What we know:
This protein is an alpha+beta fold. It has helices spanning 16-29, 91-99, 108-115, 117-125, 145-152, 178-188, 231-235, 249-265, 299-306, 311-323, and strands at 3-10, 35-42, 47-50, 56-60, 65-68, 71-73, 77-80, 102-103, 134-138, 156-160, 170-172, 191-196, 201-210, 213-216, 220-224, 239-242, 272-279, 282-289. 43% of the residues are buried.
Amino acid sequence: xxxxxxxxxxxxxxxxxxxxxxxxxxxxxxxxxxxxxxxxxxxxxxxxxxxxxxxxxxxxxxxxxxxxxxxxxxxxxxxxxxxxxxxxxxxxxxxxxxxxxxxxxxxxxxxxxxxxxxxxxxxxxxxxxxxxxxxxxxxxxxxxxxxxxxxxxxxxxxxxxxxxxxxxxxxxxxxxxxxxxxxxxxxxxxxxxxxxxxxxxxxxxxxxxxxxxxxxxxxxxxxxxxxxxxxxxxxxxxxxxxxxxxxxxxxxxxxxxxxxxxxxxxxxxxxxxxxxxxxxxxxxxxxxxxxxxxxxxxxxxxxxxxxxxxxxxxxxxxxxxxxxxxx
Length: 327
């Protein structure tokens, strides 16, 4: 009997279309001899399963099942490909865990923690992980621009606290541009983070459970044609993603060790992709993505390919890890 896998994609954030691309790649590469995959769109207006003709069947939310042509289908495992809310912030994962449904992500608390940049940084600082200097604001807070700039300096980054794909991020060079950048970030989220600029080499490090061991994938060096690794650089070809990164051996080892420690400190399972800036050979942690892009062109699949892991093997491993069984 084939394993029934619901691949959830979409979400409620600005990353909805990127998530659907990721989910469709997972759907394409699952081994049909082992799995019976279903595409599931989780959207604000509807939760539906799409068949091969894109006919929609509503999800029964009381048990996350679907009825297709009179047959009720329950999912043995849910493959989470939702970037942003509600797939990456823990809320959808909590729902699945209440229902007792296996899934490919970390537990809901770890998802919620890592989706919140401020809280992740606060936890990791206790373990001695280096980070940028930062100031945190809630929407509606009174703030002193002079104080902020005294802490973080110029240039600085203003970013939504809980958003991905570089939506709402600005690099600020002059004090007069700070307020507009803050307003832009608040358009995306009610909480924002203002961080000091780190002048160094940006790298992205994939870490995951693979064949029951924590594995660090080959590192990717990010060289943006734009001022930073923004949406255009990530998704519209305005960057070089060099895998493996051009690092000297001891710098590479430092980054790999930090990424693996962070994965363990935060008690992550499943996929993760952590971003660092190397400053004089020292890695400074920026953030972690627990539902990274999964298209053929995305960074983590590039890294897996460099490690000799195909997309079929990558996705198969995620499901097997979730089920914790052989079949």
